[in-house]
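Input/output pair, single chain:
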Amino acid sequence: MKRIVIVVVLVVLAGVAGIVARSAATRHELREFVSHNEESDVRQEIREKYELAPGAQVELLGLNGFVKIEASDTRTAEVYIERIGAGEEALKRRQIEVEATGNRLTIKSNKHEGGFFSRLFGSEAHENVTLKLPRQISLLTKGINGSVKVGELDGSVEVAGVNGRVEIASASGTASFSGVNGNITVALQRLDSEGISLKGINGNIELRLPENANASLEAKGMNGRVVSELPSVSIDEPKHGYYSAKIGNGGSAITAKGINGNIRLTSASKNSNPGLATGN
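Output:
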């Protein structure tokens, strides 16, 4: 009987010790969270250079901040990332990974789970990304919480899940935009058979097309208008929210679906105002 009592007492003491330890850990975590939030912003810089082959793929994934890309006739990619967080803990909670080979450059975020209070109340760091890239690349941006501004590329672009304005000074081949919460301006120097795809855009769109372009546009679920400043363009609206247009002799497909805004067709060779249609 005495042995049973001793065992019960030991079990109770172990349980109490565990509760105290967990409570102490929670208090420490809470103090750590509070102390980090009292700190001023902490900044970190990443500077790297990589050699890229012509036609390389550049991927920007899951970034919390603006993206700015300059392009030139070079084979060197220069990466500059400024990270800002409310204390070291915020920077540790969100890491940035840069991976590079001759044919691919990837910049992506990687979250590290912290404690309960850090996850519940802790602020996230953000990063502003500035790149100087070779002109001959293909670009993919996905999951960007900020504006995206890109210079003159000689390659395709794919933009998905961006919360901010998107500006592409020049691209060639194909262009794909989906899930963008902001205005889009893109100039295409050349269209191929896959053309341009626009899906789920909450903003106005300006498509700057090459002179003598031959393309066919189909827009469904439009909460806005399709207008053109190009010659030799016929636009038809057979029913509300649906537009079709023949550009030149028709050809490369421009498809739009679920657009909450206007689509304006202008010339890529024209130094037009980046402001977009307002419905007039």
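The longest strand covers residues 184-201. The longest helix spans residues 2-38.
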